[in-house]
Design a protein that fits this description.
With 212 residues, this protein is of the alpha+beta class. The protein is 19% helix and 27% strand. The protein has 2 helices and 8 strands; from the N terminus they run E-E-H-H-E-E-E-E-E-E. It has helices at residues 59-83, 98-113; strands spanning 3-8, 18-19, 117-120, 122-137, 147-156, 160-163, 178-187, 196-201. Strands 1, 2, 4, 5, 7 and 8 form a 6-stranded antiparallel β-sheet that branches. A hairpin with an 8-residue loop joins strand 7 and strand 8. The longest helix is centred in the middle third of the chain and has 25 residues, at 59-83. The protein is globular.
């Protein structure tokens, strides 16, 4: 089937919601709610979340929504893992891949070994999809192939803390309030909505951003 890959730059605002962001050591290299997780039954590509009808949305629009949802799911899973050492660390595999999975798994393992616990939340004050590559056919329908989405998020990290077993802070107390995340979300199983994984963060650790 003849096909092309949609690659376009867009500014898609995501409503400010409570999320976490990569502020541990792995965010130095490759490593921020809507809180609705997209699940798939029947046709996994186009069923979307419960709620408004998504039948009129294009594959590109659906992919962007799915990728943003996976970003939020990633941080929600990470928050549970970082706050509760009883939660199996393997849950991170369901939302992350590539360098992010390796780096954040290492951070979680270190935190648990040192009895470091997280508390609070980080707020996404602005998030945009800056680029995307979504495989579609000439008829506008989704076809199999690797898909990716780039997300730029500005987050307020002032509400998130890490504490050592002796009660002292386990983070840089002089960090900026607003921190940038430049995430790549990939789907090797497109158009399966469950294939999305956060795979990289191009922003330097504690790179500042401007709140809107």
């Amino acid at each position: 089937m003849a096909h092309n890959t949609i690659r376009q730059t867009a500014v898609t605002a995501l409503a400010a919601t409570t999320l976490l962001v990569g502020v541990t050591a792995c965010s130095d290299t490759d490593a921020a709610d809507p809180t609705v997780e997209l699940t798939a039954t029947g046709d996994p590509a186009f069923e979307g979340p419960d709620g408004p009808d998504t039948s009129n949305k294009t594959p590109d629009e659906l992919a962007r929504e799915q990728a943003l949802a996976k970003v939020n799911d990633f941080y929600a899973v990470w928050a549970r893992l970082d706050a509760d050492p009883a939660v199996p660390i393997e849950q991170l595999d369901t939302v992350a891949g590539g360098p992010v999975l390796d780096g954040w798994r290492a951070d979680l393992t270190l935190h648990r070994s040192q009895n470091v616990r997280s508390d609070g939340a980080i707020t996404v004050v602005d998030a945009k999809i800056t680029d995307a590559g979504i495989p579609v056919g000439d008829d506008g329908k989704a076809i199999s192939g690797p898909a990716w989405v780039h997300v730029r998020a500005c987050t307020d990290i002032s509400g998130m803390t890490w504490t050592k077993s002796d009660g002292s802070p386990a983070y840089d107390v002089n960090r900026p309030q607003f921190v940038l995340a430049q995430l790549t979300v990939r789907n090797a199983d497109w158009p399966d909505a469950n294939g999305w994984r956060v795979t990289s963060d191009a922003a330097a650790r504690y790179a500042p951003c401007d709140a809107p």
